[in-house]
Amino acid sequence: MKRIALLGATGSIGRQALEIIEAHPELRLCAAASGSQAVDGLAPLTQVGGDLTELLERAEPDLVLNAVVGFAGLPATLWALERGVDLALANKESLVAAGDLALEAQRRGGGRLLPVDSEHSAAFQCLEGRAPEQVHSLVLTASGGPFRGRARDELTDVTPEEALAHPTWNMGPKITVDSATLANKGLELIEAHFLFGLRYEQIEVVVHPSSIVHALVRFRDGAALAHLGYPDMRVPISFALTYPERSATSLPPLDLQSGVTLEFHAPDLETFPLLALARRAGEQGGTHPCVFNAANEVAVAAFLAGKLPFLAIAEVVAEALAAVDGAPARDLDDLITADAEARRHAEEALKVA
Ligand code: NAD
Ligand code: MG
Fold first, then answer.
1. pTM as predicted
2. Residue from 155, 189, 190, 161 nearest 177 by CA
C-alpha cells in the first residue's frame, strides 16, 4: 500500500492523478489540497490554500505528488526532499527556482525524485541505469504550441483564448500560455539540468509537432534512445505513482500502422525569445532561474487578465532579469526574497509595457 498526498488535486494533473489512484487498489490517497476550490471528502485529510507542509506533516505520506502550479509549490517540494519522502514532481517551477537547494535537500533526505513532466519522465526512463559519462546529450521535444510557424509580427494581437488553444496537450492555463511562448520549454531545460546533472550545452530543444517522441538521449557510442507514446499525462503520472512497477494503464498501445508522423525542426528563437532567455538564466545560475520563473508568472497572469500583450511577456521577463544581480540563495528565505524582488521588477515593467 502506497499512501499518496496529492497537492493541486483540482487541476489538470491532479484530476488525472485521481483517475490513476482510483484504478489502483495499492495506491491510497491520504491527503489532498488545492489553492481555492473545495476538496472536501476527496481524502481523509484535505486543505484549501495555506501552508501545505502542515497538511503533509499530519498526513505522513509515502509519496507526495506535487501538482500545484507555480512558485507556491516550493515549500512542499523541499519538505518531501528534505525528509526522504518520495516526490513525484509535476510542479517544475519549484525545481527551477530552487535548483541547487532542492538537490542538497534531496541528498540529505535520500528519497526519490520522480519527474512527472512528460519529457523528463521520458528522459528519466532513457537514462535510468546509465553512467553519466556514457551520455552525450539529451533532446527535449516541444510541440511548438498554437503559434508554431508564425512570425513575430503575426503575434502582436493574439488573445488569451488563442493562446489557450493548445494543439496536442490539454493542460492548466499557466502552462498552456507557457507552451505558446516556449517559456515552458525554457523551464523544462532548467528542470532537466537539475534532474539529470547535465550541462546546458548537453541539452537541446527541438520542435516536434505531433508530440509522440517525448525525449531522446544520445550516447557516446553514436546510439540514441527515444521514448515514444501518445501525448497523455496519465502515462507519466502512472509511471511516477507506481514506480518501479510500471503498472498497466487503460491507454492504447502506440499504433504505428495507422500512421505516426515524426518530424523535427529547430525552434524559432527570435519569435519565441523566452526559450533563449531561460537558457541564459540557467547558465548564469544563482537565482537567475528563480527570477526568470517569478517574472514569467507575473507576466503570464497579466496576459491572461488581458492587461499585457503576448509579445510583452518576454520583455517583462528580460527586464526583471536585467534588474537583478542573481546572487545564489543560501536558504529558502533568500529564495523567497529573490522571488519577491523579481515580482516587483516585473510589476514595474508591466506598467510601461
Ligand atoms: P492547473 O492550473 O490545472 O492546476 C493547478 C492546481 O494547483 C489546482 O489544483 C490549484 O488549486 C492548485 N494550486 C494553485 N495554487 C495553490 C496554492 N497556493 N496552494 C495549493 N494549491 C494551489 O495546473 P496543471 O496544468 O495541473 O499544472 C500543475 C503543475 O504541473 C504545473 O507546475 C505545470 O507546469 C505542471 N505540468 C502540467 C502538465 C499538464 O499536462 N497539465 C504537464 C506537465 C507539467
Ligand atoms: Mg512537459
1. 0.98
2. 161
